[in-house]
């Protein structure tokens, strides 16, 4: 049975996005909750991968890590200034349409 996507929100993601996802029943772990504030982007990816979580970020450094071939469980990138409602809406579509295996090593842009 396909496994639902679980997200790992890095420190650039607004708390309102996390709240909105949780209100909709989505499993989200924040960098703060994981005690990873200030960690390198590579360490965030490693932590997320170890738990099978897809990184949610607005930091384009993660795109460079992907391009460099760093293994990850998936990245969802929202450019800076993307409205919170648009981020939540896009993440919900991803959560409903894709599963964890389909996201592995992939990037989705919002």
Automatic annotation (TrEMBL):
Domain DUF5615 span(s) in chain numbering: 6-107
InterPro entries, per the entry: DUF5615
Protein name: DUF5615 domain-containing protein
């Amino acid at each position: 049975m396909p496994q639902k996507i679980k997200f790992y929100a890095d420190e650039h993601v607004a708390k309102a996005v996390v709240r909105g996802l949780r209100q909709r029943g989505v499993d989200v772990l924040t960098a703060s909750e994981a005690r990873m504030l200030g960690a390198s982007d590579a360490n965030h990816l490693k932590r997320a991968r170890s738990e099978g979580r897809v990184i949610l970020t607005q930091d384009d450094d993660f795109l460079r890590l992907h391009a460099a071939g760093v293994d990850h469980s998936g990245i969802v990138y929202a450019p800076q200034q993307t409205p919170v409602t648009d981020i939540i809406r896009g993440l919900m579509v991803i959560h409903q349409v894709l599963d964890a295996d389909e996201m592995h090593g992939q990037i989705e842009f919002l």
